[in-house]
Specification:
The complex is a heterodimer of chains A (about 180) and B (about 110). By secondary structure, chain A is an all-alpha fold. Chain A has helices spanning about 5-25, 30-50, 50-75, 90-115, 125-135, 140-160, 170-175. Chain B has a single domain (about 5-95), classed as Helix Hairpins (Orthogonal Bundle), CATH 1.10.287. The chains are: A mainly alpha (about 180), B mainly alpha (about 110). Chain A: It is found in: Cell membrane.
């Protein structure tokens, strides 16, 4: 066990522990905050695994943007502040499938890798990853920008009830719109 | 570095995400569980990048970046849907969403009730 192994073990324990709390807690806001802990532990995991750029992008986008959006949604849907009892459905099918998937994948990966060691490669700095993206992965990168635009337009259309729904809200207005 | 440690972490996180998606009723919590699953996949990709010596170096990390961008797009559209659902039905419980097309009279009644 080297230092990296100990770090990975500790950070993995933090990530899985806070992940358990995310899916079991009765407080909506706390679920979001435990998600921050889980994502932060994973970002530190990426740092140990030499993926520097991915770690910082994870902190920026996940912890910075996605969790804030989720907390906004929690507040905009008027979630109660305290514990709420109606967050869960009956648990045994979910426990069966989730436990089966988790333990099955664990068994598969443990069987594949056992207790082998690998040498860590060169660090994935911004320079290397940027070179890799703009040399080998340019087309997927551009397609991704189109997808982001599509998601943006989709979110705008979804949150405007007067677009694309004839006769639902204001009949006069949609008729005039045609 | 022993790759089995991050791999097992990712597998357990994926299982937890699956459990959360199936267990939770609140749509926002379902989205959080989906984030857990996406992060498990990212951890697998980054770990595979260190263990598998591919022809193109750092492909796994590039894929992880792509998945992060996809997750951001997914959460934007998903939350737009959730907020629209809340505006229409005043609930975010996923098992109260009617899967059939509502008839116009029922829809009008629901609007009257609000």
């Amino acid at each position: 066990m080297t230092g990296a192994d100990v770090l990975l073990l500790a950070l993995g324990a933090v990530a899985v522990g806070s992940g358990v709390l995310v899916v079991t807690t009765k407080h909506l806001v706390r679920a979001g905050l435990y998600l921050v802990v889980c994502l932060g532990a994973l970002a530190a995991d990426y740092l140990v695994l030499t993926a520097e750029l991915v770690a910082w992008v994870q902190v920026l986008i996940y912890v910075g943007a996605v969790v804030v959006l989720l907390l906004f949604a929690v507040m905009l849907t008027r979630a109660p502040i305290g514990a709420s009892d109606d967050l869960d459905r009956p648990g045994w099918p979910a426990a069966l499938i989730g436990g089966g998937v988790g333990l099955g994948l664990t068994a598969l990966l443990v069987d594949a890798y056992r207790w082998t060691t690998v040498r860590l490669p060169d660090a994935g700095t911004a320079e290397r990853i940027g070179g890799e993206i703009f040399r080998s992965w340019v087309l997927p990168f551009e397609v991704l920008s189109v997808l982001l635009l599509a998601a943006l337009v989709g979110a705008v259309v979804l949150s405007r009830p007067d677009i694309g729904r004839p006769g639902a809200g204001q009949p006069g207005r949609t008729e005039a719109g045609r | 570095m022993r790759p089995v440690i991050p791999y097992v972490t990712a597998a357990l996180l994926f299982g937890l995400g699956t459990y959360g998606v199936l267990r939770r009723r609140n749509a926002v919590l379902v989205l959080m569980a989906v984030e857990l699953m996406l992060n498990a996949v990212n951890l697998i990709l980054v770990t595979a990048d260190t263990t598998v010596r591919a022809a193109l170096p750092h492909s796994g990390q590039v894929f992880a970046l792509f998945v992060i961008v996809l997750a951001a797009a997914e959460i934007g559209v998903g939350l737009a849907i959730v907020l629209q659902l809340y505006r229409l039905r005043a609930t975010v419980a996923v098992d109260e969403v009617p899967l059939t097309e509502p008839s116009p009279t029922v829809d009008a009644d629901a609007r009257e009730a609000r």
